[in-house]
Amino acid sequence: YRHGQASEVVIPTPNGDVAIGRDNPIAIVAGPCSVENEEMIVETAMRVKAAGAKFLRGGAYKPRTSPYAFQGHGESALGLLAAARDASGLGIITEVMDTADVEVISEYADVLQIGARNMQNFSLLKKVGNQPKPVLLKRGMSATIDEWLMAAEYILAAGNPNVILCERGIRTFDRAYARNVLDLSVLPVLKTLTHLPIMIDPSHGTGKSEYVPAMAKGAIAAGTDSLMIEVHPNPARALSDGPQSLTPDAFDALVKELAVFGKAV
Ligand code: PEP
Ligand code: MN
Questions:
Q1: Which of 5, 72, 106, 143 is surrounded by the most beta carbons within 10 Å?
Q2: ipTM
């Protein structure tokens, strides 16, 4: 790979710069799958900030399997994320699905997320490679590590050196209990192949909130640089991904448990 030099990505947030990468504390990204309304996103931001998260996540543009499922509130949700950013000081991470939305999302977000379904959307990769905000590149659900790294290479080659790789579970033969198979073996493997920082997403990786704490701990034990965890004030009523979302109380308890695992969170 031509562009594998940055061992950390430094992200300016209202609360100060947050560095994600090898020698830094483990950064936690938390928040709902979708931005639903102002009250819930601000409340979630304040709760996850108090628990120790450094970034708020929340989808404005949602890649849903069914066209009849909630698609996200779009641009108006970006305004709600801005309100949550102002209230909490957290950096904002939100997904961009379409090249046409890159510019507006990059005005609001501190990090642009490329979702698993768009990992090989090459025009989108080139476009986010050609704007200033760091990019969180999720692994495609059936992508090999080499395909994932080459997707990252598109962003790097377009001129953006700030890429974080996010493992979010892959498809295998058994979906009876967990939604995906969270591939923690990427942690030691990627460390031999790239300097890019790594994030593990045990929420999409398992699809069930009760499995999230064990896999978050496993990810830290295996050397992750950062974690993404879905948190919703009322998971039973979430418009997307409720079953895998932790309550703010459960998230707070998990962060306290994670503190005993090596690097300070
Ligand atoms: C998400 O982060 O809400 C999401 C849709 O993730 P993925 O692309 O990993 O499915
Ligand atoms: Mn989700």
A1: 72
A2: 0.99
